[in-house]
Design a protein that fits this description.
Its cofactor is Zn(2+). The chain is an alpha+beta fold and 438 residues long. It contains eleven helices and 19 strands. The structure holds 2-acetamido-2-deoxy-beta-D-glucopyranose (3 copies) and zinc ion.
Length: 438
């Protein structure tokens, strides 16, 4: 049996060791931890402190900074590394400042403590989504400048935007629509991706576009005992069946392994509203004159919005069945030239080849490019016709965005810096394209 004295000494040494680690000089890991410590979770993200931290970091590396405020209290930070030929289209690296909330009592370490375990796991809200890339961009440039004496041909911009997690309307949407953005003359952009549980980096070339669909039926009210045609409920239920059938055909492609979830049109019922209220619930012997259903639709970029609209107006909510509908489009499916909003991931896009080779040069492998099932700020940039890939270099990492106990392993974080060194140096040295017609 070990003597209690030795046991205690051992524990004391570990604590001492950890404390001395904690007080060690600044490193990419400690700077990541500092950035993770800022409370930028909704509903009350404070953007002041992280922005002043990032400005300090950028200035310490010798980069210039600019803060824009399109909506009061919602700053956009732009960090710039000037290229030797600033007339060439630039490279833009984006990330968002905010994060979703965290239920602290469900976490094993406080979500804003950025606690690093002895195994190197750094626990924090935002560790994966997406404060990792925000720091990695800067750290890789720090290394490119100081260790390799590298200077870019093209200008490299890094943007930090607010409010992505609540739709980006006051953040990237405003920034992308501004003349400030147009003046950056962006040729190629990168934004967040997602962790990969396997050993291939995931990469995203499009987002799906959400639509909110509400269908309504009107009909003659009637006694609950009466069989008659064209009641509101009956008309609505016909549509519900048709929509369910369409949903099945889409889902069958996924179940048969012919398509990923994000490649099909998803349509999911989110509410049903009908009935005549009574004191105890609903009047049971009466068929109501109005009925309504709400659906969440997600459309991949290849989907033809006009075809879907025709289907909705002729099958799902036809006026001949006394139905009406509203569609709230939460984004566009076509860019200003009418092209699907997606980035080519083949030889037709020279930026893609440069990016892919740069990742491979670090010994990494890219998985088959994917469509993101949800949406990010990337859509605002792709809509402008600018090619953009979503990429967060995290392999062998469980997907924990928006989950309890979000973490990133220190070695994965550090490897990501190396990957960006390769990617940023390659993209910013790329002489090839000078126009954006890709
Ligand atoms: C945000 O944080 C800064 C620095 O920590 C603090 O001075 C400021 O009062 C905070 N702002 C709000 C609105 O909470
Ligand atoms: C539509 O409404 C009109 C007027 O209430 C009614 O006469 C007709 O039967 C309804 N048609 C259908 C298909 O519900
Ligand atoms: C490259 O991909 C785009 C978009 O996915 C496609 O339209 C085009 O035909 C492809 N080009 C080549 C050369 O494979
Ligand atoms: Zn994110």
């Amino acid at each position: 049996m070990a003597s209690p004295f030795l046991g205690r000494f051992f524990v004391f040494s570990i604590i001492f060791f950890l404390q001395s680690q904690g007080e060690e000089e600044e490193s990419p890991i400690t700077r990541f931890q500092q950035y993770l410590g800022f409370k930028t979770a909704h509903p009350n993200p404070n953007y002041t402190a992280p922005i002043s931290f990032l400005v300090d970091q950028a200035q310490s590396i010798g980069l210039t900074t600019r803060t824009m405020e399109y909506v009061s209290g919602k700053p956009v930070l732009l960090v710039t590394w000037l290229g030797s030929d600033p007339k060439l289209p630039s490279i833009l690296l984006n990330s968002h400042l905010d994060s979703v909330p965290a239920e602290a009592d469900k976490w094993i370490h406080p979500p804003f403590s950025a606690h690093r375990t002895v195994d190197g796991l750094i626990y924090a809200r935002g560790a994966q989504d997406d404060k990792c890339i925000g720091v990695q961009y800067l750290e890789s440039i720090r290394n490119l400048k100081s260790r390799r004496g590298f200077s870019p041909l093209r200008t490299v911009h890094i943007s930090y935007v607010p409010d992505e997690e609540i739709g980006g309307f006051d953040g990237m949407a405003k920034f992308a629509a501004s003349s400030d953005f147009a003046e950056l003359n962006v040729g190629f952009a990168m934004d967040e991706g997602q962790a990969s549980p396997g050993d291939e980096f995931r990469v995203f070339f499009a987002d799906r576009t959400p639509w909110e669909l509400v269908i309504r039926a009107e009909g003659i009210p009637g006694h609950g005992a009466k069989l008659y045609d064209n009641g509101a409920m009956e008309n609505l239920m016909k549509s519900v069946e048709l929509i369910s059938m369409f949903r099945e055909t889409q889902f069958d492609f996924v179940k048969a392994g012919k398509a990923a979830n994000s490649q099909v049109i998803s349509v999911n019922p989110v509410y049903l509203k009908a009935g005549t209220p009574s004191n105890t619930g609903f009047v049971m012997n009466m068929q109501p004159s109005e009925a309504e259903a709400g659906y969440d639709l997600r459309l991949p970029p290849m989907a033809d919005p006009d075809v879907i609209k025709t289907r909705i107006s002729q099958e799902w909510a036809p006026s001949i069945r006394n139905m009406t509908y509203t569609i709230k489009e939460k984004g566009k499916l076509r860019d200003h030239l009418g092209r699907p909003i997606m980035t080519a991931t083949n030889d037709s896009n020279p930026w893609w080849s440069v990016f892919k080779q740069a990742v491979e040069a670090t010994g990494g492998k890219l998985a088959k490019p994917e469509i993101l099932a949800s949406t990010t700020d990337a859509r605002y940039i792709r809509t402008l016709g600018i090619p953009l890939v979503g990429f967060s270099p995290m392999i062998n990492t469980p997907i924990l965005l928006h989950d309890h106990n979000e973490f990133l392993k220190d070695t994965v974080f550090l490897k990501g810096i190396e990957v960006y060194e390769s990617v940023i140096s390659a993209l910013s040295s790329f002489e090839g394209v000078s126009d954006q017609a890709i």
